[in-house]
Amino acid sequence: MKIYMAGPEVFLPDALAIGQRKRDICERHDLTGLYPLDNALDLSTRDASLQIFKGLEEMMDAADVIIANLTPFRGPGADPGTVYELGYMAGCGKRCFGYCNDPAPYAERVARFMKVTTASDNLIDDEGLTVEDFGLPDNLMMIHALELHGHPLLLPRAKPADIWRDLSLFEACVRLAANRAD
């Protein structure tokens, strides 16, 4: 079984080492991990971003499962690229697993970044927009995509000291995927 390993770790300075750790975890469970940085591309070309996009979609097409790291990235919610990848895989009818190393509900996370008030039983941000407040860890579309296409989002009881390098929930997702292998 091939696992597409989605997440914002690709932006970390030690992204290749983290990818290798994830591949090693997959191998321990007799699975093959596909990491977005496995594609060798010339980033100096004019169409580098399109080549990255096409390469990642090909990689997802070759995968049987996605494990998405939905830990908040550069804001209160998950990395938008990872969210796209999760939606793509769900749309392809593939099994979806995900984890988030921040157990706080989404509305609480929004309040970390801006003022949130209550008006007419709705949470409103400092721009006057409603804040989604279903008590979920992120947008309802991602949460329910996981529930309906694989397994509910895995969350820690407490936020790990290093949210980017703690792979215990990633490994829990790998175990779940391995146990559901056809």
Structure description:
- The protein has helices at 15-28, 48-62, 80-91, 106-113, 140-149, 168-179; strands at residues 2-6, 32-34, 65-69, 95-99, 116-119, 122-125, 130-131.
- It is an alpha/beta fold.
- 34% of the residues are buried.
- The mean pLDDT is 94.
- A four-stranded parallel beta sheet has the order 2-1-3-4, with helices on both faces. It has a three-stranded antiparallel beta sheet with strand order 5-6-7.
- It is built from six helices and seven strands.
Descriptive terms for the model:
182 residues, four-stranded parallel sheet, three-stranded antiparallel sheet, 7 strands, alpha/beta, globular
The main β sheet shows up as: 4 strands, parallel
Q: Give the overall silhouette.
A: globular
| Total number of strands | 7
Q: Radius of gyration, Cα only, in angstroms?
A: 17 Å
Side-by-side strand order of the widest sheet: 2-1-3-4
Helix content: 25-40%
Query: Regarding quaternary structure, how should these chains be classified?
Result: single chain
Residue fraction in strands: 15-25%
Alpha plus pi helix count: 6
Topology pattern, helix = H, strand = E: EHEHEHEHEEEHH
Instruction: Give the overall pLDDT as a whole number.
Output: 94
Structural class: alpha/beta
- Unreliable runs, pLDDT <50, ≥5 residues? none
Please give the alpha-carbon distance between the first and last residues: 9 Å
